[in-house]
Amino acid sequence: MNLFSTVSKFTQRRLLLASFVVILMLVIGGVGFHFLEGWGWLDSFYTAAQTVTTVGYGDLTPVTRPGRIFAVLFMLSGVGTVLYALTMLAQAVIQTEIVAAMGHRRKIKEMDKLKDHYIVCGAGRVGRRVIRQLQKEKLPCVIIELDEKKIVEFKGDGLPIILGDATLEENLLKAGVERARGLASCLAQDPSNVYVVLTARGLNENLHIVARAVEAEAEVKLVRAGASRVISPIIIGSQSMARALLKPAIADFMESIVAESLDLVFEEVAVSEHSFYSGKRLRETNISGELNIIVVAVRRKGGEMIFHPAGETLIKDNDLLIVVGKAESVQKLLEANK
Do residues 52 and 25 lie in contact, with contact meaning Cβ atoms separated by under 8 Å? Predict the structure, then answer.
């Protein structure tokens, strides 16, 4: 249970208690004036409300001896009780605001410390799945979303959330775009995604940006704006449907990898100058023979892509190995590459 939920429940209890006390005193005063003075119910509750709020219009006053005695006792007990209840409620509300402000400042400080994290702009149907995947990989991320309803499911996860417009530079700066490793722009409108990409690229020229293209025509614009990759759910969905229709066996295999039902994973392994594999040929490594991992491709530093590399292929600094294999074996490869 976090601090905010505790304060919220505490405030609710105080609110209920204060409301109960006010209603109780009004009922006691209304019933007393009704039977002792013989007034109607509306006039009785009206006078009771005047008494506990110390307004005192003077249009109705007790005239009987029992009524006046009751009025004195009611004023001495009711006014203090109601004022105390209202004060208690005000303190609870103020305390909640103070804690909320402190929590907001704490989250800002936490985001200021983030580095090499990921930023997800938009928590709709696409963004939600990106966030869940990042959580699954246990990677730090910041969410920027304008609609509070879309981030309700993530509030209990402890993720840094910025409730605001992702197209605004100030929100991207709050999310630490200058220190981020990657950004996913998953907004529902192409112009908004273009603006996010353009702004983020201007703030961090080395940032890896993946943008969603709602319409296929927006892909070129997003690339020009600075997107590293552009993903169109419509195009990918149609290609998957065509593959499932024409080549169902391949479709089943690809879906099995995505669903991890075969315990096979695709991974990219960045080779640094200090890597165990740097300067070696593929056949000289344990990647294929011992780990039983398939190197699908090697991407050179300059962008050259070597598909299905042969055993004589030399692994160089800053190469990116695209591999597929059992999850356990791939994890061993990643650890050996450090």
Answer: yes
The Cα 321–Cα 19 span in angstroms is 66
Instruction: Tell me the C-alpha distance between 119 and 132, whole Å.
Output: 13
Nearest Cα to Cα of residue 267 among 324, 210, 331: 324
Instruction: Find out whether 209 and 118 touch, Cβ atoms under 8 Å.
Output: no
Which tens digit of pLDDT belongs to each residue from 308-326?
A: 898 899 998 888 898 988 8
How far is 52 from 265, CA to CA, in rounded Å? Answer: 71
Global pTM exceeds 0.70:
no
Token digits for 255? 């879906």
The predicted-structure confidence for 281-309, as pLDDT tens digits, reads as follows 988 888 888 888 888 899 988 888 898 89
Question: For the sheet containing 161-163, what is the strand order?
Answer: 161-163, 141-145, 118-121, 182-185, 208-212, 229-231
Domains and CATH numbers, the chain: 3-111 (1.10.287.70), 115-231 (3.40.50.720), 263-336 (3.30.70.1450)
Residue 87 backbone dihedrals phi, psi, to 5 degrees: -65, -40
